[in-house]
Design a protein that fits this description.
By secondary structure, this protein is mainly alpha-helical. The chain contains 14 helices and four strands. The chain has a two-stranded antiparallel ribbon with strand order 1-2. Strands 3-4 form a two-stranded antiparallel sheet. Strand 3 and strand 4 form a beta hairpin.
Length: about 350
């Protein structure tokens, strides 16, 4: 669509983006080295990323599930109890599809519809383009509503999605753009088209993960890109808003979104390196993994939250680490009993 320029003269990569891409490429080069470490620990990172990805991507869209239910839903075989749990379990199935079959999946409108069908729990209008126009709005503190962007009309959506997928594949086959730039264009244009009534954000993150995998950037397998987005949600919406201005006229500035997107990928790689280095020695690896999970908590948390995020690590082991962090005055308990809340200091 509009981010894929027709002429080479229309495209100029800013120096900041070049620096970010070079840094990401360096981390990508070390990716295989990290993945050759302890399979047990890396498997724990994979499970942790699955849980965090399904939780964060749905939570951004306002779909919240009891954290005690996350591990049974995502790692176990627990059946969903309600609509929210169906969507979280569906997102998990979409992630599983990407992790296992990304090399054989072509980015087409049919693939995008399948990702939407899975991530929406395969119910309602899951797997269907929007049937009505959907404006992107902002609700102000005084209750008034502002329309901040008008996506592609519903009757033009199927054609727009077909064109977007064709332009993305064509740009790669012609080597017109660096792969990371092409992926950023793909996601920005997808969000500007806004092809679904609901679930556009979730599908955009699945689509980004799939495209990154296909270009060899597999960090999303070990570090949740969705959690990284959630932690920078305000910047995410701000960059998207800036880059969508004048998008319909092909006069938009992709750079705010490009820098945000590349920064997210780089942040994930940095975290992967930090975890890989910290977990390299077998002795103490589980302790470091628990500490990493606690460090990534947003707001108050419980012992059960940490257990759910650390599959395969016993409650007793987690309690030992809690006591250590308490003695170091890094965390504090806010109550009593098994459901007591904890807080980072």
């Amino acid at each position: 669509m509009h981010s894929f320029k027709e002429k080479e003269s229309d495209y100029s990569l800013p120096l900041g983006a070049v620096w970010l891409m070079n840094s990401i490429s360096e981390y990508k080069g070390k990716q295989e080295l990290y993945t050759c470490q302890s399979p047990q620990i890396l498997n724990a990172l994979v499970k942790m990323a699955l849980i965090e990805s399904a939780e964060s991507s749905n939570r951004i869209e306002g779909v919240v599930v009891d954290r005690n239910r996350l591990q049974p839903l995502i790692i176990g075989n627990s059946r969903p109890r309600d609509r929210s749990e169906e969507e979280v379990a569906g997102y998990r199935r979409a992630l599983d599809l990407i992790h296992k079959k990304y090399a054989s999946i072509e980015i087409t409108p049919e693939t995008i519809l399948q990702l939407h069908r899975l991530s929406r729990g395969e119910s309602g209008d899951a797997g269907e383009w929007k049937s009505k126009n959907n404006d992107i709005i902002r609700i102000n503190t005084d209750g008034t509503i502002n329309i901040i962007f008008k996506p592609v009309p519903a009757d033009q959506t199927p054609g727009a999605m077909e064109q977007l997928c064709l332009l993305y594949r064509h740009s790669l086959s012609r080597f017109r753009y660096p792969p990371l730039y092409a992926v950023a264009c793909l996601i920005l244009d997808f969000l500007c088209i806004h092809p679904f009534r609901d679930g556009n954000g979730r599908v955009s993150r699945l689509l980004a993960l799939l495209a990154l995998y296909q270009h060899g950037y597999e960090v999303g397998k070990y570090i949740s890109l969705e959690r990284t987005v959630e932690q920078s949600k305000e910047t995410y919406y701000e960059s998207l808003n800036k880059s969508s201005q004048k998008w319909h006229q092909s006069k938009h500035d992709i750079n705010p979104w490009l820098h945000y997107f590349l920064g997210t990928v780089l942040s994930a790689y940095k975290e992967f390196e930090e975890r890989s280095i910290a977990l390299k020695p077998i002795r103490g690896a589980k302790t470091e993994l628990i500490k990493q999970v606690i460090e990534n908590q947003i707001g108050e948390f419980t012992l059960s939250d940490i257990m759910n995020a650390c599959p395969g690590i016993s409650r007793d082991m987690i309690r030992v680490v809690f006591r250590q962090l308490v003695s170091e005055k890094l965390i504090r308990c806010l109550g009593k009993g098994k459901s007591a809340k904890w807080k980072k200091l």
